[in-house]
UniProtKB/TrEMBL annotation:
Organism field: Actinoallomurus vinaceus
Domain Methylated-DNA-[protein]-cysteine S-methyltransferase DNA binding: 7-71
InterPro entries: ATL_DNA_repair, MethylDNA_cys_MeTrfase_DNA-bd, MethylDNA_cys_MeTrfase_DNAb, WH-like_DNA-bd_sf
Name this polypeptide is given: Methylated-DNA-[protein]-cysteine S-methyltransferase DNA binding domain-containing protein
Domain of life: Bacteria
Keywords: DNA damage
Length: 104
């Protein structure tokens, strides 16, 4: 059983919910933005509780899609106009820094 999200998990999920459509953050970006945890801790939060937030907007730093969810993620990226480079998200163009001015 997963239980209720921890305080850290709630903060991670809050950041994910604020990522604008067409933009992404890497796992490490979220940890850095929060000033706590690391990519693995953020990944664990997403694995346990990320289904209710736009999970496809959280990816590896190299822009690769979430293994096992590539097709679903790609559908979301295309629908949102996320910049792509072949089979990866173009991190240079799509990375969101958490700037409130960019949030929807």
């Amino acid at each position: 059983m997963r239980g209720d999200p921890t305080d850290f998990a709630e903060r991670v999920l809050d950041v994910v919910e604020r990522i604008p459509p067409g933009r992404v953050m890497a796992y490490g970006d979220i940890a850095e933005f929060l000033g706590e945890g690391g990519p693995r801790q953020v990944g664990r939060v997403m694995a346990l509780w990320g289904g209710g937030v736009p999970w496809w907007r959280v990816i590896r730093a190299d822009g690769s899609f979430l293994p096992g969810h590539e097709q679903r993620a790609l559908q979301h990226y295309r629908a949102e106009g996320t910049p792509l480079r072949g089979t990866r998200v173009d991190m240079r163009l799509a990375r969101w820094t958490g700037d409130a001015a960019e949030a929807g």
